[in-house]
DNA sequence: TGGGGTTAT
DNA sequence: ATAACCC
């Protein structure tokens, strides 16, 4: 199955959204099978250059986590609320007309018995999400995450091993039934641009002039989506590994003073520091993101980022050093760089992001290390550059 | 539209 | 730093 085309987007068709245990059954079936059925027609064994990839998509993930935490919720219509939105809901609720991303007021109107739990804190969802990924990684290390509730697993090697074990008379008996996917064109912006070109179905895209498409969308996007329209996707399943960034955000109706903003930034930062200390790696870059109020249309985010000073990074992990104060200081500088606080302003979102994560330095301490570290900390090099310099010196030593 | 994520430019 | 994409 192609990676990007693999998910049927219509709801309510009883499509194969699965729990992890069922996913494992499917994986076993896939490993045993040597043929794929398309339109109920059995096609021969995959050839040596093709791959076997499973796509595991967890059903109404946040709602499931809540139902596991509190089984009393299991047989009730349940919605997970973030601000004034029901971001997802269980099937009881869907039967009664509640939809994803529905207004709380509309949802309550449709379904007065709806039970709501607050899902603004993603901690438990994030933890469960990584448990699922780690479970899948036991089968193959090649697991790519997409959001919190989807994983792609490349099972090619497992399948090949299984096929070698099977006797030839067993081979002919195994079949796996397939799935036929419907027309759907891709991301929002690209879909709009395609529509402007008169392309509204997969078939339209298949038959459209490659040259014109390349001129309109750029060669990279054009060639990729046109291959996708034929079900061809040679992109690898890229192991996600640990996250490359940690962020916390909060949205609100109005924030219009620096003091108010500072309070919110401090809250976001406190949560992030907890998370980062658990992770063990250290961020070398910090970013502040804002969203300004705008009465209509799509509202863009703005951001400012800077390297985290090395003396702050060092104090990040253990110890009771106050890392909040210097960090808040940096963030407020970034804030004033974006927002002219002498003028009236109206923000609707603040977000803090730690990125450019690096593993702890595992090199053994030598006699020169203290000298090298202190001399480098006084330079104005970027983190990347100074690490390169340090590494080369280490090799020399 | 929330609260996250990734990659490309 | 932003824009596009994904959930």
TrEMBL record:
Signal peptide: none annotated. Keywords: DNA synthesis, Transferase. The keyword Transferase applies. Transmembrane segments: none annotated. One of its GO terms (biological process) is translesion synthesis. Residues 53-158 form the UmuC domain. The keyword Transferase applies. GO terms for molecular function: damaged DNA binding; DNA-directed DNA polymerase activity. This is DNA polymerase iota. The chain holds residues 1 to 397 of 659 of the full protein.
């Amino acid at each position: 199955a192609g990676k990007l085309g693999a998910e049927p987007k219509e709801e309510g068709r009883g499509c194969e959204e699965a729990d992890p245990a069922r996913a494992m059954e499917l994986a076993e079936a896939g490993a045993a099978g040597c043929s794929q059925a398309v339109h109920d027609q059995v096609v021969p064994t995959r050839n040596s250059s093709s791959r076997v990839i499973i796509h595991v998509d967890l059903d109404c993930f946040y709602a499931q986590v809540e139902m596991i935490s509190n089984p009393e919720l299991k047989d009730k219509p349940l919605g997970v609320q973030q601000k004034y939105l029901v971001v997802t809901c269980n099937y009881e609720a869907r039967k009664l007309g509640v939809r994803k991303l529905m207004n709380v007021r509309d949802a309550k109107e449709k379904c007065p018995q709806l039970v709501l739990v607050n899902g603004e804190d993603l901690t438990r969802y994030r933890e469960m999400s990584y448990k699922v990924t780690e479970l899948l990684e036991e089968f193959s290390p090649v697991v790519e995450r997409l959001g919190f509730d989807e994983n792609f697993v490349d099972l090619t090697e497992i399948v090949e091993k299984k096929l070698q074990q099977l006797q030839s008379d067993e081979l002919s008996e195994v079949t796996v039934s397939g799935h036929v996917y419907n027309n759907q064109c891709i991301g929002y912006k690209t879909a709009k641009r395609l529509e402007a070109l008169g392309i509204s179905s997969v078939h339209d895209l298949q038959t459209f002039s490659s040259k014109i498409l390349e001129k309109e969308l750029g060669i990279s996007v054009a060639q990729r989506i046109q291959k996708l329209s034929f079900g061809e996707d040679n992109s690898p399943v890229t192991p996600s590994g640990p996250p490359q960034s940690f962020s916390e955000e909060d949205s609100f109706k109005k924030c219009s003073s620096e003091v108010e903003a500072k309070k919110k930034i401090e809250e976001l930062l406190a949560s992030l520091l907890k998370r980062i200390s658990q992770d063990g790696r250290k961020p070398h870059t910090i970013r502040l993101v804002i969203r300004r109020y705008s009465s209509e249309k799509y509202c863009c985010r703005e951001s400012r980022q800077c390297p985290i000073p090395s003396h702050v990074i060092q104090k990040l992990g253990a110890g009771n050093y106050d890392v909040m104060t210097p960090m808040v200081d940096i963030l407020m500088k970034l804030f004033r760089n974006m927002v002219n606080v002498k003028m009236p302003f109206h923000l609707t979102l603040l977000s803090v992001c730690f990125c450019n994560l690096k593993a702890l330095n595992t090199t053994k301490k030598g006699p020169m290390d203290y000298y090298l570290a202190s001399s480098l900390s006084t330079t104005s090099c970027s983190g990347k550059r100074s690490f390169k310099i340090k590494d080369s010196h280490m090799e020399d030593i």
